[in-house]
Design brief:
The protein has about 300 residues and is α/β, with parallel strands linked by helices. Helix content is about 35%, strand content about 15%. The protein contains 10 helices and 10 strands. α4 runs parallel beside α10. The chain is elongated and about 60 Å long.
Length: about 300
């Protein structure tokens, strides 16, 4: 059986985010969470309330037509300059973001011993900033940089300081910030920007994230599969599940008859696989879940 609750129906307009919700689907969700051993799969929608835009919005259509691919990044010096110029400016926005009530609710559920693991598709580090532990960063993290030659990992803040020193007179204004942390800049604002190479070997630096066209390391995927297999419930938060990178864990859960619950604004690829779906804002709903938990 699948329970579907549209925003404005059952949960209403969420006039009391700290109250106990009474919809049938929400009551089932409280019971599932109360059984413990919940595995969280989170996506960009969880971070929108922290000011970081998501990739697709409620319509499911991609907001950005041409994301940077791994092949373009490694094959073009101009593409790397464009990426690092835009990312250097956008990183300030991501670095200043703070966890929202949804992140804090997840961390509290984990503190109560109800969450067995967290798999996040996000690269913003906000789960950890909220106090969550042992988060599997499926797509890596923007706060680290890796060298494609010697594989050394360094902090993004260190690179930020090096880029600022190399471009002392560069002060463009961003038109918008993309979900992957880079800023929209005109070509003439990118000309003359100086990038930095690995300080140890001179190799190419890349953010420690999975670009489009790049595969998540197999051992990391396997750990996520094993975590999913041991779960009592897979709870999807803020992901359209459009790409297979996250959707595969929903499919894996259903293969083992593990119930899937989805909280997301807008439909998702996994709705037909789910026991229940809640089309509601993440922060108020997760806060209400904490208030409604009676186990």
């Amino acid at each position: 059986m699948t329970w579907a609750v549209e925003e404005g129906l059952g949960l209403g307009a969420l006039p009391d985010p700290s109250g106990v919700f009474t919809s049938p689907a929400f009551e089932i969700l409280v019971d599932l969470i109360g059984d413990g051993d919940v595995v969280i799969l989170s996506g960009a929608g969880l971070s929108t309330e922290s000011g970081i835009p998501d990739y697709r919005g409620e319509s499911g259509r991609r907001r950005r037509a041409e994301p940077m691919t791994y092949q373009t990044f490694v094959g073009s010096a101009a593409a790397r300059r464009r990426y690092w110029a835009r990312s250097h400016l956008g990183w300030r926005h991501v670095a200043q973001a703070i966890p929202n009530s949804g992140h804090r609710a997840v961390a509290e559920l984990q503190r109560r011993g109800l969450i067995a693991g967290i798999i996040t598709q996000n690269v913003d580090g906000l789960h950890q900033a909220a106090g969550a532990q042992q988060v599997i960063e499926l797509h890596g993290s923007l706060d680290r940089v890796t060298c494609l030659s010697c594989a050394e990992r360094t902090s993004r803040q260190l690179l930020h300081e090096r880029l600022r020193a190399a471009n002392p007179d560069w002060h463009p204004r961003a038109g918008a910030i993309n979900p992957d942390g880079d800023a929209v800049l005109a070509d003439d604002q990118i000309d003359g920007f100086h990038i930095a190479d690995c300080h140890s070997c001179g190799g190419l630096l890349k953010p420690d994230v999975i670009f489009f066209g790049e595969n998540v390391p197999r051992p990391r995927v396997q750990v996520c599969y094993e975590l999913t297999e041991r779960a009592n419930t897979l709870l999807v938060l803020g992901s359209s599940l459009t790409v297979m990178s996250g959707y595969r864990f929903v499919r894996h859960a259903t293969k083992f008859a593990i119930p899937v619950a989805i909280i997301n604004q807008g439909s998702t690829r996994g709705d037909t696989d789910a026991l229940l779906t809640l089309d509601t804002p993440l922060g108020p709903t997760l806060t209400g879940l904490l208030a409604g938990f009676r186990g």
